[in-house]
Amino acid sequence: MLRLIPLILFSLMSLQAFAQDSNELTTPSITSLTAKLPDTKLRDMNTLIEQLVATEAPQVRKLLSTLLEGDLYFIRSNDQVVIAIKTESQYQLTDILTGTELASSSKSAIKKYVPIIGYVSKSVLL
Questions:
Q1: pLDDT at 99
Q2: Please, how many CA atoms are within 13 Å of residue 76, restricted to the half-sphere of its CB?
């Protein structure tokens, strides 16, 4: 009887690990959701933002607040989502997910996200 207890515990732990793995496969990551931003239509933005919030990733708050502030852009050549802050004649770019500073860029190399304040509730950021 005592020999069965470790076997049962091991089985339960295996099932729990399997459930977590399968859940991770069905839950989109913040990276994949952020990659969808440049191509997302305005009518689908609410769903995408809800999915981003559901990831509970720490970067979501920064992403949504940057979007509200109007500083969220993407690089036209590769659709990388960045924070763009205008300096004298260029824009200083920072990767939204990693916080890595990127090279400065001209306005023509980046595209700004349209303001979607109606879709991003400030209560989401609290």
A1: 92
A2: 8
Question: If you search the block for the tokens 């979501």, which residue do you land on?
Answer: 60
Q: How many angstroms separate the CA atoms of 124 and 64, rounded? A: 8
Q: Distances in Å between the alpha carbon of 110 and those of 47, 64, 68, 81, 95?
A: 24, 18, 18, 10, 13
Place of tokens 């239509």: 41
| pLDDT tens-place string over residues 24-74 | 444 578 889 988 888 888 778 778 888 888 888 888 888 888 888 888 999
Residue 81 near residue 74 (C-beta atoms within 8 A): yes
Question: E-strand spans in 1-126?
Answer: 72-75, 81-86, 91-95, 110-112
Cα gap 38→123, rounded to integer Å: 24
Q: Please report, for the chain, how many H helices and E strands are present, in that order.
A: 5, 4
The tokens for 85 are 């802050």
Q: Tell me the residue length of the chain.
A: 126
Cα separation of 105 and 61, whole Å? 25
